[in-house]
Design a protein that fits this description.
It is built from twelve helices and five strands. The chain folds into two domains: 69 residues, no CATH class; 124 residues, Rossmann fold, CATH 3.40.50.1010. β4, α12 and β5 form a beta-alpha-beta unit. A five-stranded parallel beta sheet has the order 3-2-1-4-5. By secondary structure, it is an alpha/beta fold.
Length: 220
């Protein structure tokens, strides 16, 4: 089944893409290979490919980071020829890079360049970025509904993995909640401890009450 996209882009970016003679075929090929899931296609249509230039200016950093992870070649075009990529060796596939606490999710949704860049580097190194379901739910709670598409997009990206709250982890989470005041933070700590993984957050002091002081924390 064919998929048609209407892409509204700033003039500078449109001119850059126009220099690629086979850009239409390239985008179609990327869609077939990397975005076959109807849920992802629907999210992208709603979130990125139908945005006006004004909206792209506001959300461009988030969208560019997402495009770079979903279709690396198109992402390089968006970033420009001078952007380059870090020449880092690939790590063991499937290993976790870090856990995104609720504040990190909110920062990403707000267009934070550092959070987006760290996710892009994790993708380059074939590492997993862990999103606790409790943190994702809390982020949805703090963002107006018209901004939910950013979190939808983040959760659908290849390097990210949303960790659900299941019956099997209820007892363990209950133990964490004895020392941590919120479900989202408790799950973030639990997921970090499960995989011995750094946490990206601005709640270092609270985490210091339940994790060793030497625990790697990426401060926002």
């Amino acid at each position: 089944m064919s998929t048609e996209f209407v892409i509204e882009l700033p003039d500078e970016l449109a001119d850059r893409l126009a220099e690629e003679p086979d850009i239409s075929a390239f985008v179609a090929d990327c869609v077939r290979k990397d975005m076959a899931a109807e849920r992802i296609l629907r999210t992208l249509r709603q979130a990125g490919f139908a945005l006006s230039p004004a909206h792209l200016k506001r959300a461009g950093r988030v969208l560019n980071a997402a495009l770079e992870q979903i279709t690396p070649e198109l992402g390089a075009l968006v970033a420009g020829p001078g952007a380059g990529r870090p020449d880092e060796p690939a790590a063991t596939p499937g290993r976790s890079a870090f856990v995104l606490d609720t504040p990190a999710l909110l920062a990403f949704a707000g267009g934070d360049e550092d959070v987006a860049a760290r996710i892009a580097v994790a993708s380059d190194r074939r590492l997993t970025v862990v999103i606790p379901a409790g943190c994702l739910a809390s982020a949805y709670r703090h963002i107006p509904q018209e901004g939910w598409w950013v979190l939808d997009l983040l959760a659908a990206l290849r390097p990210t993995q949303v960790m659900a709250l299941t019956a099997d982890c209820s007892a363990a989470l209950g133990l964490w909640l004895r020392s941590v005041p919120a479900v989202d933070l408790a799950q973030a700590a639990m997921e970090a401890a499960r995989g011995i993984t750094p946490i990206m957050t601005d709640r270092r002091e609270l985490l210091g009450e339940v994790l060793p002081k030497e625990w790697p924390i990426i401060d926002l």
